[in-house]
Specification:
Layout: E1 5-9, H1 18-31, E2 35-41, H2 46-50, H3 58-63, H4 69-72, E3 74-75, E4 91-95, H5 104-107, H6 113-118, E5 127-132, H7 138-146, E6 149-155, H8 158-182, E7 187-194, H9 201-208
Parallel strand pairs: 1-5, 1-6, 2-4, 2-5, 6-7
Antiparallel strand pairs: 3-4
Helix pairs in contact: 7-8
């Protein structure tokens, strides 16, 4: 993948703001002039819904039915994500998902299937962003193998941080596999605290201690 970055938004715990963060990263980069593709890799289809799209098996069709990219992506009108004072200078497209997304891993034999499909986009998009499900699965592994960098959103709650620690352990396993297969590991791009409450002592302490989580 020769574009700037292919990133995934991961934390194996629900309700930490993964979809919201993925949408804002994708839209923000598009506003700033990047050609961005957001892939809805969560069977709930929340990223698709959040951007005003219908749930459909775009991601499943891409990997399992081997559909062409231009048959599964949906280009958004700039009005769907730009702000009145900051018009979009780039492009944002979405590969929608639905409940069939959860079955993808059981239908694939090649762990590099996603990475191979991304190679087809090197002259079309600058950045690809995955919004993943909170439930650990083999699909996460397929996405890790296709990903250059990972962004971890987390609440400053103890349970969320425990989930982040487990997620990071899994990432290290797949990163080592990616290193052996492709000569490059998966980078951790950022940990993003979400829903932070400045008055909560637990949040204050966990924010200070976040570097010890991973």
């Amino acid at each position: 993948w020769s574009s700037d970055v292919c990133s995934s938004d991961l934390n194996e715990k629900g309700g930490v703001g993964k979809t919201t963060l993925a949408i804002h990263i994708a839209a923000g980069l598009a506003v700033r002039g990047q050609r961005v593709l957001l892939i809805d890799a969560d069977g709930q289809g929340h990223a698709s819904y959040g951007l005003g799209l219908e749930e459909e098996p775009g991601f499943y069709d891409l990997l399992v039915r081997k559909a062409k990219w231009d048959k599964v992506w949906r280009v958004l009108a700039p009005e769907a994500y730009e702000s009145p004072n900051d018009p979009a200078r780039g492009l944002l497209a979405v590969v929608p998902g639905n409940s069939e997304t959860a079955m993808i891993a059981n239908k694939l034999e090649n762990a590099l299937a996603m990475r191979m499909r991304l190679e087809e986009l090197s002259d079309i998009f600058d950045v690809v962003v995955f919004d993943t499900s909170p439930t650990p699965s083999l699909l996460h592994g397929i996405i890790y193998m296709a990903t250059d960098a990972v962004i971890y959103p987390t609440e400053c709650e103890t349970y969320s941080l425990r989930g982040l620690s487990s997620t990071f352990t899994n990432m290290q396993v797949f990163s080592a596999q990616r290193q052996r297969a492709m000569g490059a590991p998966v980078d951790m791009l950022a940990i993003v605290p979400t829903m932070y409450k400045a008055q909560a002592i637990e949040h204050q302490e966990n924010l200070k201690d976040r570097k010890n989580v991973v």
